[in-house]
Amino acid sequence: MADELALGMSELTALLLTGDDVAESLCAIADTVVRMLPDHPMAAITLTRAQGTIVGGSSAAHAMLIEESRYSEGYDPCLQAIGTTQQVSVPDVAAEHRWGGYSTRMLAHGVKSIYAQPLSVDGEAVGALSLYSTRPNNFTDRIRGAADLTAEHLGVLLAVANDTARQAKLTEQLRATLASRSTIDQALGILMAERRCDRDAAFEVLRGRSQQRNVRVADLAVEIIQTVTGRAPGAPHFVDPITPSRSQRRS
Known about the structure:
Elements: H1 2-18, H2 22-36, E1 42-49, E2 52-57, H3 62-71, H4 77-84, E3 88-90, H5 102-108, E4 113-121, E5 124-133, H6 141-195, H7 199-213, H8 217-229, H9 246-250
Helix pairs in contact: 1-2, 1-6, 6-7, 6-8
């Protein structure tokens, strides 16, 4: 059991931190969770984002989840776990009367018991790990304990993935800022040479033209460079701040 969990944690780390397609990654993560947990229940990973909820299910659960999304009233054990940041246990789906027609639909898919564990990042629920079994009262303390440990690990990985995404966005913004600054500097150099003026005077000329034509300074700078050189300005040299340069790696 310990070896299965350790191997599964390693696979989850690789899947969550390297996957490009979020929905596809969630399905792969759900399949990994199924393999690593005792009794191998069906599994689903749900993430809540500004643009909506994303769900990925293990191979046996995916079709069920797609169908459920068509009829869901917008509330179920998974969403309750996210909303309350608490585990939700449904030992016997046949005896469950919460969430409208949800239990009836789950029974039609052969699901007899459910366990949902929120995925938290910095104390905030950002998703849930949901488990489904074809047997009632199937989620023993052993299975729930393994699921809770898995959910905790997923929460840590989601925090790392979010930080990585934020860093990538900041890096891209920095690249764009440097490219714009480099282009403006080149255009200023051209104006300084043409008008035999200093940088401040050249910038006033550039800004004045920008206001007259209602064109961004950076876009106007590109036009000036293209007019003089016959080609668009090249991209500036940029070394990713989180990636060492070749010379640094060799040293």
